[in-house]
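Thread: quick sanity check before group meeting

JM: Hey all, I'm pulling together slides for Thursday and realized we never actually wrote out the predicted structure for the chain we discussed last week. Dropping the sequence here so it's in one place. If anyone has concerns about the input, flag it before I start.
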Amino acid sequence: MAAPYMVTRGVVLRQTETKEADKILTLLTADRGKIPVIARGVRRRSCKYAASAQPLAYSEWTLYQKGDWYYANEASSIEQFSGLQSDLSRLSLGFYFAELTETVAAAGEALPELVSHLLNGLYVLDKLKKPETLAKAAFEFRILCLAGYEPLADSCAFCGCADPEQPLLDVVQGVVRCRDCGVGESGHSLPLCPASLAALRHILYGDPKRLYSFTLEGTALKRLSAAAEGFAAAQLEGRFRTLEFYKSLQV
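JM (edit): ok, ran it. Output follows.
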């Protein structure tokens, strides 16, 4: 008996070319989480859904399952984020968003918030043209929250002060502290300032629909960005190839 078909929507997080004309895709779906999909013949010019198999493409897929693998039958593009193709810096940042998402995404469980967060991040890069540093920091902090690594930033973790003096983010413990508090108990800490701390609180505790609706410049933005990147590295304990490539473009 032929395997029943299923229809799902998903974002291509990663692709690997295999055999003569096939691809193995890592697809992020709202209903099944992260799944491996074999797209046979998708590299041939005659394939009608080749565009849907490109990295970062968001499409509706018709699949069937054999064991642990899914096989593509057809797909229809919903959003290609085509504006990123003409901007290597933003495109590489989009790939970093995808790699970070793949790292925290689980297989076999519904992940609608994670899909929404990735799509919003790509939309911000593609359509809204928000400053890359701001978009990157907001995306990093928020995806860590969704993955269960939300830092505590409402007050100093040691003295309880709502407005920490010369605030720091301990990226290992995931807490904000005053510069002189908990010195002997803290891990690696990175400096913030009142403006960057306010932005962090907006990212963590604000309406997700308004995640990117803040402004930050200069030293405050640099501090927020360094804290976000340091927090992601400390909590996920990994290096990201796409991040290294993105940073090489900024030199």
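AS: nice. The longest strand covers residues 5-18. Residues 114 and 146 are 7 Å apart (CA to CA).
JM: adding both to the slides.
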